[in-house]
Amino acid sequence: MKVLITGGNGFLGRYFVKHWNGKGHDVLTLGRGDNSDIRCDIKEEVPEIDEDLDYVIHIAGKAHSIPKTKADEEDFYKVNVNGTANLLKGLENKRIKGFMFISSVAVYGAKDGSDITEKNELKATDSYGKTKIEAEKIITEWGFEQKITVSIIRPPLILGKNAPGNLGKMITGIEKGRYFNIDNGKAKRSVVLAEDLAEFSTELITIGGVYNLTDGFNASFHQLSDVISKTKNKQKVKNMPLWLAKGIAKTGDFIEMILKKEAPFSTKKLKQMTTDLTFSSNKATTVGWRPKKVVTNVELWIN
Q1: Of 61, 107, 160, 170, which sits with the fewest C-beta atoms within 10 Å of its C-beta?
Q2: How far is the C-alpha of 56 from the C-alpha of 130, rounded, in Å?
Q3: Mean pLDDT of 81-92
Q4: What is the pLDDT of residue 65?
Q5: Is the pTM of this model over 0.85?
Q6: What digits encode the pLDDT tens for the residues 90-108?
């Protein structure tokens, strides 16, 4: 099979390229870097794709972050929406069997909740979530018009080697002795291994549909931090009482109000660390999703 993967040189993209190459498929990558087979900045231009493809996996996009300026907000739209539209234009009149898009559970706009399913309303209000919703819509309509099977994956926190974002910050904090669990780290989060997403893609891309993909276990902050500290040979992560955390968070709120910039710790971040936010992947299990449990496969995501 001939497979095009956008964002193939990024954190998650590298897992997909490795997996599809390992299955003996002919993989082409599309991205801005010199090492991409098709070099193109899709947020600015339509890619020139000169051959038919069996499958396309669209991973390239602006990662989840808090925009600090209006320009940052606009960049989410340029990359995640305009970039997707330009890619689809470049695929016009190509014979394609299946298209896969890596979206995010951020489309639900949920700050807390348990076992959120694909039937939940998409209520994202942040730039990242809203642009992922828009990209999903564009792709779904395009797939219907072109009679192409479309698969949309909505993963939660993705774990893998050198993972960016909050996981990387958590590991660094534990290594330096600066990370604390709050309220005994009881809050649970859905997570998934990057390797599992890549491995399942070869099956799911032929099926189509929208799926949450998690490891189905929903580890607590305590469980994750315990695994990290043991693997890194660091002392067990200490607990911060909730009353103390609330006091520190209020100080952070005051700093944000006065300086108009994000504080290291605030009431918003405290809520994120003390409330459950989990997603159900039961729908995916009906089509063969059998993920590995994150906390018992440490070697796959901790350096």
Answers
A1: 170
A2: 23
A3: 96
A4: 66
A5: yes
A6: 999 898 999 999 999 999 9
Q: Tell whether 13 is covered by a domain.
A: yes
Q: ∠21-30-59 over CA atoms, to 5°?
A: 80
Report if residue 194 sits inside a domain.
no
Q: How many domains does the structure of the chain reveal?
A: 1
Average pLDDT on 164-174 reads: 88
Q: What is the pLDDT of residues 204-250, one digit of tens each?
A: 999 999 999 999 999 999 999 999 999 999 999 999 999 999 999 99
Q: Can you give the residue range of the structural domain that contains 96? A: 2-154
Whether 210 is in a domain gets the answer no
Q: Is residue 187 in a domain?
A: no
pLDDT value at residue 98: 97
Average pLDDT of the segment spanning 57-62:
95
Q: What would the DSSP string read from start to end of the chain?
A: -EEEEETTTSHHHHHHHHHHHHTT-EEEEEESSTTSSEE--TTTS-----S--SEEEE---PPS----SHHHHHHHIIIIIIHHHHHHHHTTT---SEEEEE--GGGG--SSEEEE-TTS-----SHHHHHHHHHHHHHHHHHHHHT-EEEEEE-SEEE-TT--THHHHHHHHHHTT---EEGGG--BB-EEEHHHHHHHHHHHTTT-EEEE---SS--BHHHHHHHHHHHTT-PPPPEE-HHHHHHHHHHHHHHHHHH-S--SS-HHHHHHHHS-EEE--HHHHTTT--PPPGGG-GGGT--
Q: What is the reported pLDDT for 261? A: 83
Q: What confidence category does residue 263 fall into, taking pLDDT thresholds of 50, 70 and 90?
A: confident
3-state secondary structure 71-83: HHHHHHHHHHHHH
**Domain of residue 141, CATH code:** 3.40.50.720
